Amino acid sequence: MAYTNDDEALQQWPIECRDDALQYLKMSHEMVKKLLEALMGNLGVELDDSNIDVFIGKKMVNMNFYPTCLNPELTVSVGRHSDIGTLTILLQDGIGGLYVKVPEEADMENKGEWVEIPPIPGAIVINVGDMLQIWSNGRYKSAEHRVRTTSTKSRVSIPIFVSPQATQKIAPFPQVVEKDGVARYSEFVFADYMNSFFGNAHDGKKSLEFAKAN
User: Residue 75, class by beta-carbon neighbours within 10 Å (0-12 exposed, 13-18 middle, 19+ buried)?
Assistant: First the structure.
């Protein structure tokens, strides 16, 4: 359910869930602003009301249902990928099934392996998206993840995807490039990145190759 304004949401979103979904979206919006202020501030980039829409110009609420499968090892509910936007706010049920790949460069024993993110009552999962990785010139890493079904219970998850507008130009922040001495990604329009992402099969984080600097 893509959000443009309250009136459109009340008219077009399913009546069974629209009020709760709209409240969830609004509460998450303030949290996302605070998260971005902290993350960008750590990079020396100051956010205010004049530029926050660059990061959260578009918001979408999804409601995902994963039915039970007698042989879950033979299914892949969502292929491994990273989200293309800025941040993803994920509300899980108590079933589990979300796995994140630990980056190879991580200083951990299980680097390169898939680690389940267990649901915690009252907690939400925050995923860094590809755009935040690019804006930060690679300092923040988007989360490669996948979802597995179970043979006993159906699974429900409700993610909010926060993204730039399709017409927004994306490039690493000059403040970060100056510190790093190199821009690791080229400038592009977000719509072109989306077309590349949805025009190809999910294959981990290969979608980021679209933006790699030459």
Answer: middle
Q: Which residues have C-beta within 8 Å of that of residue 45, sequence separation ≥ 6?
A: 173, 175, 176
pLDDT tens, N- to C-terminus, the chain (214 residues)? 999 899 999 999 999 989 999 999 998 988 999 999 999 999 998 887 778 888 999 999 998 888 887 777 766 556 788 999 999 999 888 787 788 988 777 666 666 788 888 888 888 999 999 999 999 999 999 999 888 777 778 888 889 999 999 999 999 999 999 999 999 999 999 999 999 998 887 788 889 999 998 7
> Looking at the DSSP assignment, which residues form a beta bridge with residue 158?
91
Give the DSSP H/E element, type plus range, for residue 126.
Answer: strand 125-128
Contacts of residue 11, defined as CB under 8 A and 6 or more positions apart, other chains included, come to none
**Interior/surface letters 161-197, b for 16+ CB within 10 angstroms, e for the rest:** bbbbeeebebbbbeebeeeeeebbbeebebeebbebb
Least Cα distance to 144 among 76, 196, 206 occurs for 206
Residue type, 132: L
CA distances from 122 to 31, 93, 98, 214 (A): 15, 10, 17, 44
pTM reported for the whole predicted model: 0.88
Instruction: Spell out the residues 6+ positions from residue 60 whose beta carbon is closer than 8 angstroms to its own.
Output: 1, 2, 3, 160, 161, 163
Structural domains in the chain, sorted by start: 2-204 (2.60.120.330)
